[in-house]
Amino acid sequence: MAFVVDASVTLPWFLEDERSAFTESVFAALETGEYWTPAIWCLEFPNALLAAEKKRRIDRATRLGVLDRAVRLSIRVEAQLPDMRAVSTLAERHGLSTYDAAYLELALRQNFGLITLDRDLADAADAEGVPLQSPGRSGAAQRRQRYNR
């Protein structure tokens, strides 16, 4: 199964103080799985790095080096723009930002799973019946719950 991966998972690959066994396992699986992200990731990811630089968590050279490495990741960026009405509806229904809803919209539209550290986004994916990988949530339990509705 293909998965949508959000910035909450991809940032820890480059910010050592945010790494976890979960994020490292997703990173290790990049070469063997199919991972997607909506185009918004191309703005959200560098913005988070810039914020980290402003907070002096990383320096400019590190930020620019991370950006160079990030473009070589085995993550496919969805070229199709999301349906704005669908994104807005998902954001409203689940109390998400439209940025987070864009990840959910891609997962729903393409019938992909979702990988996130964001609890609100994980709850929304669960409510929508999207297969989910998130710390503390069992993929098997998610599938059972989806089919028991």
Poorly predicted residue ranges: 139-149
Number-wise, the strands total 5
From the helix content, strand content and strand pairing, which structural class follows?
alpha/beta
How many strands, which pairing sense, and closed or not: the largest β-sheet? 5 strands, parallel
Count of DSSP H/I helices: 8
Description:
With 149 residues, the chain is an alpha/beta fold. It is 53% helix and 9% strand. It is built from eight helices and five strands. It has helices at residues 7-10, 21-28, 41-54, 60-70, 84-94, 98-110, 119-127, 139-147, and strands at residues 3-5, 35-37, 75-77, 113-115, 132-133. It is globular and about 40 Å long.
Summarize this structure as a short list of keywords or feature phrases.
149 residues; alpha/beta; globular; disordered C terminus
Please give a quick description of this structure.
The chain is α/β, with parallel strands linked by helices and 149 residues long.
Give the secondary structure arrangement, pairings included.
Blueprint: E1 3-5, H1 7-10, H2 21-28, E2 35-37, H3 41-54, H4 60-70, E3 75-77, H5 84-94, H6 98-110, E4 113-115, H7 119-127, E5 132-133, H8 139-147
Parallel strand pairs: 1-2, 1-4, 2-3, 4-5
